[in-house]
TrEMBL record, chains A, B:
UniProt family annotation: Belongs to the NADH dehydrogenase family.
Protein name, as recorded: FAD/NAD(P)-binding domain-containing protein
One example GO MF annotation: NADH dehydrogenase activity
Keywords tagged on the record: FAD, Flavoprotein, NAD, Oxidoreductase
Domain (FAD/NAD(P)-binding) ranges: 6-295
A Pfam entry, by short name: NDH2_C
TM region positions: none
SUPFAM superfamilies the UniProt entry points to: FAD/NAD(P)-binding domain (SSF51905)
Keyword NAD: yes
Any one of the GO CC terms: mitochondrion
Length: 408, 408
């Protein structure tokens, strides 16, 4: 395994770590804890498919470039936050993809409160500092907004009673609705709930630039801010962009066959999975659920054949390869704050009239039930026993003792 | 309360966080969680005792300098790591005073293993990278060495079986014995134990310079290293040094009366406690135990009188002030690795022959008993209920599941 990041990150719970509901290490799994894996903390710089070799750059001594041969390659590099080329985003906004990002966001919000509490800060300073703008209407930004609001109202209000009225949270979405993959009913439920909690939700609000102290929308409206969290969408990362010979989709993702092997040029021994790939028969959403199923599909292929002697490996592998990848949608879910969630299970969005009322009732959850579903689903998906102990413990701690408010 | 650091740090357990036995946040207590305290995250730049004002610099907008008046001042700024003016220490060594330091040390050791595991690193590279030098023979460096060894042998050996034989840990002490405050018998016990565990203990080894890849001793011997941890002693910090009018001791600490007020110039409303102060009647060791008792002494003074009306405050306060501070030695202890510790309780070092064997037996502990004493003592000293739950939980986690090996 080659990666500049030495841990696996359980991204669905990343938003919870930005506020200290969970600690960073309980949603990561160190790669080094896995058995029988040779791991290199290096960055892949290029892929020489003709030679069956990849080119690596050492993460620590960056002048150390070396090559590594392979028989089979699984290309699974993910993607990066998309700034849509909007000016000032990379310089001024905070992203939410990695543990480091979550740490930065957490420290930033704490910093804003400390700065606003200074006797030298004016009323206007306070209003600006305590204005948080979240850009994007997908599950990541919704969950971040929900967690932020919970944190500030449950813990912030106790610590900074004189500041809490200065807080404004604004959620910006460029299209005409949030949570598009959940359907209009759950989106409406979420918007209503956010508005009751005094979170401003502005749809049809495209950001055109992010200056040091304000965000400007297309209609000229300027929103002063203390922090901007940018979670609008994804774009291919540098390595994927640089693989010039490989066929890409319109969105820049690598085209793969239904067996998840490279489509063109065709190499049977290169698999691409996750956000960076797209099957030519139809694009799947760039979610963890898809990547997870793709990972299992490939693992199954290799596991079925590794029991055989090496001489028969290729033949068995090719046989195994006849089963193509088939995505099974298990639904989507999001936490929306205050012990409430939204869950859209398969069939929820079916237009089929034969889907009866009873079935529909269980394919669309909102409120406490959806939140319980959300917690139990993510809890069962955690990868290690240690984290299965830590995560509920921190949930309990946040509930009873509040969230930690120190930065270092 | 004014401090650039927004949390209280339980320093005695800091060494445990360098290896992930404990997580950073379970030994910190956010200042903001305390009730009825106005906190400023600022750095004190100067004290204008004549005007009863202090000068502060904002920790975030560093050009923001402001003054704050006081009736009473408690000066408790601690001290900083002492490099004894040895060349290269500040540039190349890692210190162990703050949470950030512990994070850096933890990440550094992980980095060394990742670098050494690269196929491009030679046998010599590995030997150098995996050589850790700890400078200082006090409890901090002893505990760090012990934790490091536990970590590497329990977790490192599983993850890097091919590298573990390249690891060398060297402890350097300039004087002729380690753990001087514990007495010769416990020092000898510790040295024997360390040597059994293949930790090199070099006494009478004064470091004269720290270059980028090696440490040089006075006798010319050069030790190549991957990491140097510097924990030799303390020196006054910049603010204390700059308070030119205040009388200082030979070691640069501020001289205080037996009531812990400023000795010269005499200001009854300025108290100095902790590492930065020294009573004129005799120096106390710069330990948490002394600072803790001094803090309680001052708190008692204020608490006894705050129930009275403000007009009578000064009078009561002066009365209260007649009781001078008296340090009660409750002993010293250190963890030395592998479920063993050393504990020196009062009377252990008494030369009095009347102290009978029975009494002596309980004033000097070593091994498992001392370790249990160490754990229970520190456990009871933790300040919050949340941390009293977290700390044993992490001890349990480290014991069963090992320590986390990811860096971010």
């Amino acid at each position: 395994m080659v990666s500049p990041r030495n841990h696996f990150l359980f991204t669905p719970l990343l938003a919870s770590t930005t506020t200290g509901t969970l600690e960073f290490r309980c949603i990561t799994e160190p790669i080094r804890h896995l058995d029988r894996i040779a791991y290199h903390q290096s960055r892949c710089m290029d892929i020489d498919a003709a030679q069956n070799e990849i080119v690596l750059r050492d993460s620590f001594e960056t002048s150390n470039i070396y090559r590594m041969p392979y028989d089979y390659l699984v290309y699974s590099v993910g993607s990066q936050a998309n700034d849509f080329g909007i000016s000032g985003v990379r310089q001024n906004a905070l992203f939410l993809k990695q543990v480091r990002d979550a740490m930065q966001i957490r420290n930033k919000i704490q910093e804003l409160f400390e700065r606003a509490s200074k006797p030298t800060s004016s009323r206007d300073d306070r209003d600006r500092l305590l204005s948080v703008v979240v850009v994007g209407g997908g599950p990541t930004s919704i969950e971040y907004t929900a967690e932020l609001y919970d944190w500030l109202m449950e813990d912030g209000a106790k610590m900074f009673p004189e500041l809490i009225d200065h807080v404004t949270i604004t959620l910006l979405e460029a299209s005409d609705n949030i949570l598009s993959m959940f359907g209009a009913d759950l989106a409406e439920y979420t918007i209503n709930r956010f508005r009751k909690r005094k979170i401003r939700v502005l749809t049809n609000s495209r950001v055109v630039r992010v200056e040091k102290e304000f965000v400007e929308l297309q209609d000229g409206y300027q929103i002063p801010y203390g922090a901007v969290v940018w979670a609008t969408g994804l774009m291919p990362n540098t390595l994927t962009n640089n693989l010039g010979e490989w066929q890409k989709s319109k969105t820049g993702r690598i085209c793969v066959t239904d067996h998840l092997t490279l489509h063109s040029p065709s190499y049977d021994n290169i698999f691409c999975i996750g956000d960076c790939a797209e099957t030519i028969s139809g694009a799947l959403p760039p979610t963890g659920q898809v990547a997870n199923q793709q990972g299992k599909y490939i693992a199954r292929k290799f596991n079925h054949v590794t029991a055989k002697p090496w001489s028969e490996f290729e033949q068995h592998f090719t046989e195994q390869n006849k089963v193509s990848f088939n995505f099974v949608n298990r639904g989507t879910m999001a936490y929306i704050g205050g012990w409430k969630g939204v869950t859209s299970l398969p069939h929820h969005l079916d237009q089929d009239t034969k889907t009866n009322a009873f079935k529909r009732r269980f394919t669309r959850l909102q409120g406490l039930r959806a939140w319980l579903f959300w917690r139990s689903a993510y809890f069962t998906m955690l990868t290690s026993t240690a984290n299965r102990i830590l995560v509920p413990m921190y949930w309990f701690k946040a509930w009873i003792f509040g969230r930690d408010f120190s930065r270092f």
